[in-house]
Recover the amino acids of this structure.
């Protein structure tokens, strides 16, 4: 039986550099939660399935050029277009395990030199996560992991800057997990963090991101 059938679902966000292991861990966490009887869905940003998402995808593949602020706002718009659906899923008791969110938006754009407060502004009013897990992997280690896929931003010097911005965004509520540990160890830590979070947010209202 589902232990969250009467309450709302949890908004669980995984953040980290490219090749930090987020996508694999999201998939593992999702099947664990579903196996425990939780209603849970896996989401990711950018969501490349929308028309905004297709513009983002073309930009990342270097098939189009966009001004830095323009692409920043598209990443944000891609979250805004999903906000309503996220809210209704959460309120109806579905937990969302989300691969990247607003913190990626700010860290990657700020790494290009954009003002961090300017980068945060369009994220205000999106749903606030109940749990942010940062998979901490050194940029050098991440680059070793089968290399990058050739998308924009997948360069070690750039990832180093992204890591610095993630670091300055971190607040005490973030759970930092050492992503260089064995996959199963990371997986166990995520299971515990997510399980606790789902229990704790039962009864707590959904809030908006305010920074
Ligand atoms: N990215 C992702 C951003 O620059 N801003 C955002 O708001 C988000 C959600 O897109 N290098 C970057 C981070 C990644 C790239 O993401 C594609 P993924 O998780 O590799 O599909
Ligand atoms: Mg990627």
């Amino acid at each position: 039986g589902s232990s969250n059938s009467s309450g709302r679902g949890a908004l669980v966000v995984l953040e980290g550099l490219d090749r930090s292991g987020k996508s694999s861990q999201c998939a593992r966490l999702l099947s664990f939660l579903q196996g425990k009887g939780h209603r849970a869905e896996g989401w990711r940003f950018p969501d490349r399935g929308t028309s905004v998402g297709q513009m983002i995808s073309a930009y990342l593949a270097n098939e189009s050029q966009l001004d830095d602020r323009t692409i920043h706002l598209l990443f944000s718009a891609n979250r805004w277009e999903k906000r309503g659906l996220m809210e209704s899923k959460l309120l109806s008791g579905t937990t969302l395990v989300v691969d990247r969110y607003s913190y990626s938006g700010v860290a990657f754009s700020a790494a290009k030199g954009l003002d961090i407060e300017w980068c945060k502004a369009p994220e205000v009013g999106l749903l606030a996560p109940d749990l942010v897990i940062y998979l901490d992997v050194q940029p050098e280690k991440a680059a070793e992991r089968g290399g990058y896929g050739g998308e924009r931003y997948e360069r070690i010097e750039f990832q180093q800057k992204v890591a610095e911005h993630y670091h300055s965004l971190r607040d005490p509520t973030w759970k930092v997990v050492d992503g260089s540990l064995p996959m199963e160890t990371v997986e166990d830590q995520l299971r515990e963090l997510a399980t606790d979070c789902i229990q704790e947010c039962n009864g707590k209202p959904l809030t908006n991101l305010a920074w």
The chain has a mean pLDDT of 96.
